[in-house]
């Protein structure tokens, strides 16, 4: 997945907002909270960062092409970075981005959750 595909997919989710921040990273939010980031590699290759469940965090931390996300994981947050963005992993990445969106949405106040519909 490239950044254009990433932005198109994240933008297709309900009530999302987009901003460039943190060194020109593509940042996607729901209810004002970050759920996905495109960017942050030292070698300028595509990398995508997202929130996960504890189970998926433990699983993906051991998978090739994934690692605990810089900055987030160092602070105990369950965020993963996919740094190997081969086209064969696009469907898998879309699943994890959707899950991140869902997890972040569930953490919003009820008022904000209701306003997303």
UniProtKB/TrEMBL annotation:
SUPFAM superfamilies: YjbR-like. InterPro entries: YjbR (IPR007351), YjbR-like_sf (IPR038056), YjbR/MT2646/Rv2570-like (IPR058532). Signal peptide: none annotated. This is MmcQ/YjbR family DNA-binding protein. It comes from Colwellia psychrerythraea.
């Amino acid at each position: 997945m490239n950044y254009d595909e990433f932005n198109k997919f994240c933008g297709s989710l309900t009530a999302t907002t987009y901003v460039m921040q943190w060194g020109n990273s593509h940042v996607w939010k729901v209810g004002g909270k970050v759920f996905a980031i495109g960017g942050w590699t030292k070698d300028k290759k595509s990398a995508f960062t997202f929130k996960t469940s504890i189970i998926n965090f433990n699983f993906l931390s051991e998978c090739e092409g994934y690692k605990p996300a810089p900055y987030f994981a160092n602070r105990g947050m369950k965020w993963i970075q996919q740094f190997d963005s081969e086209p064969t992993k696009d469907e898998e990445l879309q699943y994890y981005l959707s899950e991140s969106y869902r997890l972040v949405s569930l953490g919003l106040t009820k008022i904000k959750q209701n306003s997303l519909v």
